[in-house]
Amino acid sequence: MRIFSGIRPTGEIHIGNYLGAIKNWISLQEKNECIFCIVDLHALTTPYKPKDLEKNITETAIVYLAAGLDPTKCILFVQSDVKEHAELAWLLGTITSLGELKRMTQFKEKIRKHPEYINASLLNYPLLMAADILLYQTDLVPVGKDQQQHVELTREIARRFNRKFGKVFKEAKVLLPKMGARIMSLQDPRKKMSKTDDPKEYIELFAKPTEIRKKIMAAVTDPGKEIKYNPTKKPGISNLLTIFSLFSGKSIKELEKEFKGKGYERFKKSLVKLLINSLEPFRRKRKELLSREVYIKEILQKGARRARIIAQSTMQEVRKKMGLI
Ligand code: TYM
Predict the structure, then answer these.
(1) Which domains does the chain have, with CATH numbers?
(2) pTM for this one?
(3) 298-317 confidence digits (pLDDT tens)
(4) Can you list the alpha helix ranges (DSSP code H) found in the chain?
């Protein structure tokens, strides 16, 4: 299977990104042809500083490597290094209606969050994401729940293109994790954990033990004191149980039994310990990688060369079919 996915280099990557996406990528790379991208062009659609972007691209590459992506097993590259992404996005825009783009939940959320920064590329964002996926004849797109709608639109665009111009694209399917597809904010467990929100709401993948302790102990819980999984009535504890389960490998049922009658504080303290231990290897690996900038650059350049070959071959077909000589 050909796998494609990506992350925007917009800030600190958190445990929601890890549990919803990256953790799955690590196992997928063993038996599939995987392509993982740092989608820098997407990161330009929300407010940013050019200096920070440069740093965030390297930091995202470090996350990929520290989390366990292996450049000998998958292609790692930066989106803007392969020009075909922007080119195909433009072409796909000619067969996509304005209504389809305006309906996207993420577009609506983002214009609410940044009313001062409603740019045309924010609306066109799903076209670039469709181009990312379709250029590589992708079979599966492993992402968190918030990206499902964009992958569904990508399928629709692929179908439409194939019908109109002749078959070029594969209809990629979304691949959601069974658990952890939507990790919630630590301060408001009714909304998703997001890296562009207040840092109190998320735990960064490289968070220090003191930060982990502070944020988990301050995480919003629910009335009552029972450790029970019930996302509607107990969204706070249910979110923490999900995080606990995914990092420990224990099922929710086992955890409910283990913490029966023990109260929120004991449960939170155990979660702090678990997170400190689980994130420690990532921190260690990051420290090592920080001094290897040349090595990281080489991986990304090599990745871009390999990606370009696939992307160019798809684009050649697209141009031919669309009458562009
Ligand atoms: P981004 O950068 O917002 O997030 C990266 C990945 O993390 C997942 N994710 C979550 N999963 C569980 N719980 C959460 N709270 C949570 N927050 C984020 C996201 O679903 C995503 O998988 N548009 C994409 C990037 C992209 C892309 C692509 C993905 C661009 N082109 C092509 C796949 C294929 C985005 O903004 O992800």
Answers:
(1) 2-181+293-322 (3.40.50.620), 206-288 (1.10.240.10)
(2) 0.97
(3) 999 999 999 999 999 999 99
(4) 15-17, 23-31, 40-43, 50-67, 84-93, 98-102, 105-113, 120-135, 148-165, 209-217, 235-248, 252-258, 263-290, 293-322
